């Protein structure tokens, strides 16, 4: 009986040793696979996304018009590469009853930052930077407030189809997000009657408009 037990012990040890060696090899293979996957992920080009804000700020600027627009530019994937956004453009095209009107030629004038003025109880936008390329990575999403300006064009009532476009480094395809803007006669009169550099809010998430397909994806004056 004792001899039988003594003979079984080496066999059990050999069996456990084989299992241990197999488990260690399997763990090493899994670790290698994970490392290779992570390396492949890091070497991929970053997948950049642009999310439009719910708020668009529009106001007069001398004889022209300015628009403040603050999208979120980010990537959800790990990557050793960073994306360089070299230029940003905003376009508006009159449609429908005003389709024959001249389209504005907005240019990226600068970047701004909103500040609250306690004396006037108003939000003011201060200069924060020149129009310049900026970097986007997973740990550094960007939310710049772009100031776009046309020096000689004034809004008129009607519907506009628009887009914001961000150019990327190399030969990568630009990032483009579409939207629409609806300007009422009331909003136009309000802006023309206000002082120079007054800022007026247009939103695309107002409950009284989102239920109508007419206003889908459109920015509308808050007071309409």
Notable characteristics:
224 residues; alpha+beta; 13 strands; elongated
- β-strand percent reads 35-45%
Q: What's the story with the biggest beta sheet?
A: 11 strands, mixed
Tally of DSSP β-strands: 13
Q: Judging from the principal axes of the Cα atoms, what is the shape?
A: elongated
- Residue ranges: pLDDT <50 for 5 or more in a row? 36-43
Strand adjacency order, main sheet: 7-6-9-3-2-12-13-11-10-5-8
Radius of gyration: 29 Å
Order of H and E elements: HEEEEEEEEEEEHEHE
Number of helices: 3
Cα separation of the termini: 97 Å
Helix content: 10-25%
Mean pLDDT across every amino acid position: 82
The chain-level structural class is: alpha+beta
Topology:
Blueprint: H1 2-43, E1 48-51, E2 55-61, E3 64-69, E4 72-75, E5 83-95, E6 107-117, E7 122-129, E8 134-136, E9 145-150, E10 158-168, E11 175-183, H2 185-193, E12 200-203, H3 207-210, E13 218-221
Parallel strand pairs: 11-13
Antiparallel strand pairs: 1-4, 2-3, 2-12, 3-9, 5-8, 5-10, 6-7, 6-9, 10-11, 12-13
Q: Can you offer a commentary on this structure?
A:
The chain has about 220 residues and is an alpha+beta fold. The chain has helices at about 1-45, 185-195, 205-210, and strands at about 50, 55-60, 65-70, 70-75, 85-95, 105-115, 120-130, 135, 145-150, 160-170, 175-185, 200-205, 220. Strand 2 (about 55-60) and strand 3 (about 65-70) form a beta hairpin.
Summarize the structure.
This protein has 224 residues and is α+β, with helices and mostly antiparallel strands.
